[in-house]
Task: structure prediction
Amino acid sequence: MNLNHYPYASKRMPVLADNGAVATTQPLAAQAGLKALQNGGSAVDAAIATAAALTVLEPTSNGIGSDAFAIVWDGNKLHGLNASGRWPSKSSAAYLREQGFDAVPERGWSSVTVPGAPAAWEDLHQRFGRLEMNDLLQPAIAYADSGFPVSPVIAHLWNEASSLFLVPNRPEFDGWRQTFAPDGRSPRAGERFSSAGHAWTLKTLVARGIRDFYQGEVAERITVYAKASGGDLTADDLAAHRSQWVEPISTAYSDCRVWEIPPNGQGIAALIALAILDQMDLHEHDHASAPLWHLQIEAMKLGFADAYRYVADPDRAEVPTNGLLDDAYIRSRRALIGDQARLPEAGRPPAGGTVYLCTADRDGMMVSYIQSNYMGFGSGVVVPETGISLQNRGAGFTLEPGHRNEAAGGKRPRHTILPGFLTRNGDAVGPFGVMAGEMQPQGHLQVISGMLDHDFNPQAVLDAPRWRIRDGLQVDVEPAVDPGVVAALQARGHRVVMAPNSYSFGRGQIIERRENGVYVAASEPRADGAAVGY
Result:
């Protein structure tokens, strides 16, 4: 990618570093990861330190009650980790349907799945860590204990979330109010915030080990609160949780391969869209032009249609991963794209609110890591005096009887979060990710196309304007998009909506390793983030 390519007014330089780099959505968290690298830690150590700090510093997107996925380049090959949790064994789709629900509720205990993030830290550390877990969690503990100044974008998102949880007669949100709005409101930008309960939980995990979250004092606090407040989560559900090491899946694009975690993650939606576009010579179109965006939008809609139909927990349903990426199937999907916008349908393949961070160390290890509660603060259920805000990943299920992704006890839902990785000729180029729910595969497509079709460097591609598919033919675009592009898309049948701000268009991070070993790190301008290195 061309370090001198600056197509946009910001002209922001990426960070260049020889020995290691960290990029994430909150500057203090990035510094926690950098400290781990400077103390001799691996890229995995840096990822754990950053992820733990983010649970404190950015509670609007993640927490100790999150799920996580990771892709690790060990210097020679890629390793995938699926640390998503399961719906409680007692939970039932039939029961929710009987209660009149046509979807799993987005808030409250029905949406809660077993948190996988703490187990992800332990599994990554056991395999690739160098420093002691105690050292890695110390920055997070210090920020929880002593407090930190809330950064601007997080303060905005916190205030938006408070309208959901600071409502009367909702006792299930009492823990949220006590933990995240102790003064009756969300903290403003620059105000200090601390959480003694969060510090207690992290200190307990250091003293007793991470498994205490699943089979110890922390687990007991979670399950006692669940029983007292109407939750289905039990001690057996927590004790049964295990992460899974998986083989990442990929597709060719330009002269590279793009890698994602396989289902139950929806990274395959991005791979389908990229595979469709790979033979369409996108470099011939100007970046952020209507012809380019039309092709990308139509390919992405086809990728989503297949993901919504087929992505599910592969332990509980047949997921045709290979078939969805089959060359003949991709050609058949590519043939559906014409000059006008269309409503997509899933094909028939042959059988076969989130934080993102990336890190790299002096030995060439690189990590693509994502951790999320879903929909901001998640379920709104916070275990009192622990700081544990439980995720609402159960909302990723469907209640449609017989669907591959139908909710069921002990099953993992379709996940929106996805870490990405790029290789060329079998060697690492580097990790990348773009957050924001269903924006994630769309963001992956747009940054990969910008880097490989238009030679943008990591910072330039993150600064570039974006589109986002909504329902039907609706496509949102950022406020700065050229009105001429909007008009041209509308002429092709797209229902274009100019978004009032850029918060929903993703918050990405990228680290690229150049042929001379120099790291090029970049952080999203739509967040408070930072890329740092040394």
Summary: The mean pLDDT is 94. The longest strand covers residues 427-434. The two ends are 21 Å apart (CA to CA).
